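For this section, I looked closely at a protein sequence along with its fold in token form, which I now present.
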Amino acid sequence: HKKTLSVKSTSITAKPSKMKISFLTTLSLLGLGATIVHGHDSLRSTGVGDVAEDSNTAHKMKLIPLQMKLMALERSMATSLETLTTKVAAVEIVNTQMAAVETGCKGTAITGTVVVTNHKVHNVPGKDEAGAFLPAAHTVWHDADIMVGKKNVGSSQGSCIQTSQVEWMGMGRFINCILTLSFNGSGIYQSGSVMLQGGFDFNSGISGVASVLAVTGGTGAYAGASGESTLSLGNGFVYGLDACA
């Protein structure tokens, strides 16, 4: 009887041991994070959430080099844009100098097209009691913007008088003006002012025929300027400068 009990005992204890090892081995083969600790046959699982978190972290780590490359590219593009802007300004200066040579100007050439907008206008009433336009009625403006493309290069001020009773869109069509273009030294124009005087026809915006004003002087880089400038209506008052200082 003792021998029989011993065999049965061995049989009973062997079966759970084999089942346990088989279960742990199966978990390990399935990759579910099971670990057999020798001596204790214990089970430890890392958990599906931890695996997902590790995968997300690894993905973020892979993105870091790409983000650094993108930042480097943005800095490179900003530097290139700044360099290009400087080169464009240099080319514009050279073009101005070449224009001076082509026009025979021995000093500083004053060429190019500028647009004057946003006039701060003060009008002296220009009609009599019957509603007729009065010659010599004044229009005065100040702090108007001088633009080259989208760049502000200075300000303008001046005054005009009506020279006839011909009406044009609610104002006197013909005027005579004395005005100043004051450049701030940015873009292709140096720091200085150019003075102009002459008659203007408001119908130039429709007819396409520009008026011509005389350049009568200047200050700063344009001291002693002489020449002329066309004047027409567009998206503002458009001056086509052709002078020399």
Summary: The chain is about 35% helix and 40% strand. The CA atoms of residues 160 and 229 lie 16 Å apart. Helices lie at 2-29, 48-102, 204-207.
